[in-house]
Prior knowledge:
Strand content: under 5%
Distance between the termini: 103 Å
Number of helices: 11
Shape: globular
Amino acid sequence: xxxxxxxxxxxxxxxxxxxxxxxxxxxxxxxxxxxxxxxxxxxxxxxxxxxxxxxxxxxxxxxxxxxxxxxxxxxxxxxxxxxxxxxxxxxxxxxxxxxxxxxxxxxxxxxxxxxxxxxxxxxxxxxxxxxxxxxxxxxxxxxxxxxxxxxxxxxxxxxxxxxxxxxxxxxxxxxxxxxxxxxxxxxxxxxxxxxxxxxxxxxxxxxxxxxxxxxxxxxxxxxxxxxxxxxxxxxxxxxxxxxxxxxxxxxxxxxxxxxxxxxxxxxxxxxxxxxxxxxxxxxxxxxxxxxx
Length: 292
């Protein structure tokens, strides 16, 4: 065998260089994949609503809310935040938490009110779009504009009720009706299913989303040391109820969130008063005279 032939055969067994591809790493795509899963969950919920399978539709809306709560946090952990991801998440939120809840409630009960029954769901979707647009506008600084710096006490609060929480509150009549039906309380289930009740909830929650009511974001929420154990026990008890009686647990969660809005607004007002008092005290402090 010639030397050239030997080199050719040996070259076949040499390690080839690994090809290099341009583009983002897979870790940076995980948040967008989660957002896609949430969007698909919202679309499947609409399909189940059109088929009259409202329990499954509500379950997929809840699943979309859980996914929405995870994708942003995972994006920050993996350092995969991007402008594309933020816009994609906003569009997904509008469909899952703005369009789907109103449409599901319309197919479930509001269509019994005739053409007027479509108005609450439409207004809820409009309020959701305005709320998301306001959030995006506040997050993005316009070219040449001076960025608005929020006070330190406001970083733990949303302005208005966020869209996923709003969707859960809007579906509270459906959750309660499904729970009463499972318990055999058909009279209560039919009473909660009245179109007027769902219409009032859609108008109320839509107004809360576009309002300036401060609501806790729970991003940097600190728990007192003496409340850690009760919080863990309460969470375990809620999960146990969620597994055994999911519709009752979701209804209870919605009522608890309604109650927390009052305490959230009160906490925001207290922090604002304390910050203003500290600022006024600093500004009013007289300057010391120079020592001769």
